Amino acid sequence: MSGIAHHLVKRGIEHTHDRYRTGTFAQDGDNKPFGHPHIVAAALVITTLLWFFALSAVQYIYGGVVATLTMIETPTATAFKIDPVESDEADAPLLSSDEKKSSTTEPDLFYVKTKPITSKIRTTIRHIVAEAGPWARFRGLQVALAYHFIHHILFQVLTALFGGAIISQSVAAVVTAVVLCRLQMLWTHVVISTPSEKKWYRRFPTIDAGKKVILPTAVWALAEQATIYVPLALFVLFDLEGYFRNPA
Q1: 52-to-45, 55, 58, 65, 142 alpha-carbon distances in Å
Q2: What is the pLDDT of residues 101-152, one digit of tens each?
Q3: Taking Cα atoms as reference points, which of 145, 162, 137, 155 lies closest to residue 201?
Q4: Is 194 in contact with 166 (CB distance < 8 Å)?
């Protein structure tokens, strides 16, 4: 689906760019002047913006909020104790109190697993909307915007300080992730917790709590960079560039 959408958008942009430059649109094989090229350009821009916001909303709600709640929720089970019956026969005599005490039969325990709320996307959305209203789908959005903005600025500054080479970009990415680990921790806390009257910037985790996530954040950032360099190293190791040049 994404490949088809990419192809259609690419064809639409190329076609609109060519016709907007010449000021004509082909109709029935003839080039006839089109009097309102700016309307077409505005329609293209508006459609692109709507597509961008819709795609970003879907990615944030389902790839961010719902995915985080799914990882956080812990499966639960309810235990029921059932005492054993004295006899299956209807006319069996009742046991005395002394005989009951001497009986070694233990009660049966049954565990009923509760179905997680996040087992379905629909139930997850219904739950968070019921808890905090329709805008709960975008909980933590302000923190996410602040995180990505600061991440971009800090990454660019560190890359320039480290020299701008490819390896320096990886180092800058790891350092940036570690520096902003408390902000990432704040976003997770805002997403999984109940709504609060406090502003998000007043809900920062303590420094001691932030220290506990420094090592996991560094490992995650290194693993993310490894997904870039490991395939590149294999590409060079097996000389795949030469193979593509001369497959025979």
Answers
A1: 10, 5, 10, 18, 18
A2: 445 556 666 666 778 888 888 988 998 888 888 888 999 999 999 999 999 9
A3: 145
A4: no
- Token representation of residue 57: 């909303």
Distance separating alpha carbons of residues 135 and 129, to the nearest angstrom: 7
User: What φ, ψ does residue 166 adopt, rounded to 5°?
Assistant: -65, -45
Rounded Cα distance between 228 and 240, Å, is 16
Write a three-state SS string for the chain: CHHHHHHHHHHHHHHHHHHHHHCEEEECCEEEECCCHHHHHHHHHHHHHHHHHHHHHHHHHHHHHHHHHHHHCCCEEEEEEECCCCCCCCCCCCCCHHHHHHCCCCCEEEEEEECCHHHCHHHHHHHHHHHHCHHHHHCCHHHHHHHHHHHHHHHHHHHHHCCCCHHHHHHHHHHHHHHCHHHHHHHHHHHHCCCCCCCHHHCCCCHHHHHCCHHHHHHHHHHHHHHHHHHHHHHHHCCHHHHHHCCC
The pTM score is 0.68
Q: Torsions phi, psi of 31, nearest 5?
A: -90, 110
